[in-house]
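Chapter summary example.
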Amino acid sequence: IFNLPEQPDTFVEVDEQAHYTIRNDQMHSKCGWTPFDGWQVTGRVRRVVLRGVPVFADGEVLAQPGTGMLITNAE
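The structure predicted for these 75 residues follows.
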């Protein structure tokens, strides 16, 4: 997707049936807010595994700062 190289052992698990309300206090961002605060939505990320290592699970960031890696177009 988006011309990114294959990333073995990397995946996202989504609960497509989950309903919840987006809240500013649940954001994992530097600004700490979202323009979508208060929106009721369907579908929620449950788990993210990056290169075989769980980095997010049920709302909790498990990765340490600096865990990311720059992925560039393989072409």
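To summarize the output: DSSP finds no helices and four strands in the chain.
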